[in-house]
UniProtKB/TrEMBL annotation:
One Pfam family this sequence matches: PHB_acc_N
Compositionally biased tracts (Basic and acidic residues): 160-170
Protein name listed in UniProt: Polyhydroxyalkanoate synthesis repressor PhaR
InterPro entries: PHA_DNA-bd_N, PHA_reg_PhaR, PHB_accumulat
Residue stretches making up the PHB accumulation regulatory domain: 70-109
Source organism: Lysobacter enzymogenes
Region (Disordered): 143-170
Biological processes per GO annotation: regulation of DNA-templated transcription
Domain PHA accumulation regulator DNA-binding N-terminal: start-end pairs: 6-65
NCBIfam families for the chain: PHA_reg_PhaR
Length: 170
């Protein structure tokens, strides 16, 4: 089992990755998260766990750029839970909701992957073959009915003098 990667945060706000023995940026920490790496951020002097503060910093920076994930209304509602009797349940609820969302997203991706085949080109090839087969079937049906007489179907309300509700009288 791999040990948790330790990143030290110094008073000058620099981050030091002890695994690679090098300073890293906050964006490097974000990439560790995206890559699924287990890590913790520790204060270099006291050893206090600063992981949550660094994660909140990453969220804050990304919320300022581009399209935010968290609306002002959602953030306000979360803030209202601090000090509320249900504050302890809120974190657990959000975690479970996010996990459910991620599970459903993965299931959707798997289903789409099954529909699409291995690559988009494979899907395009399948669609092209299906359309070609439909076209051939259409041509065969058309050539088979060429020699047969066509009998027109009588139109409703086609008798002279009858009122056609679809037509406007002038």
């Amino acid at each position: 089992m791999a040990s948790t990667r330790v990143i030290k945060k110094y008073p000058n706000r620099r981050l030091y990755d002890t695994e690679i023995s090098s300073y890293i940026t906050i964006e490097d920490v974000r990439q560790l998260i995206v890559d699924g790496e287990e890590f913790e951020v520790r204060d270099a002097r006291s050893g206090d766990d600063l992981t949550r503060q660094v994660l909140l910093q990453i969220i804050a920076e990304h919320e300022q750029d581009g399209d935010p994930v968290l609306s002002t209304q959602l953030l306000s509602q979360i803030i209202r839970f601090y000090g509320d009797s249900l504050q302890g349940f809120m974190g657990n609820y959000l975690e479970r909701s996010m996990q459910l969302f991620l599970d459903q997203q993965q299931q959707f991706r798997n289903q789409m992957g099954g529909m699409l085949g291995q690559t988009p080109w494979a899907m395009m090839n399948q669609l092209t073959e299906r359309n070609l087969n439909l076209w051939k079937e259409f041509q065969q049906n058309l050539s088979g009915s060429v020699g047969q007489p066509v009998t027109p179907k009588p139109k409703a309300n086609s008798e002279p003098g009858k009122h056609d509700p679809g037509k406007r009288e002038r």
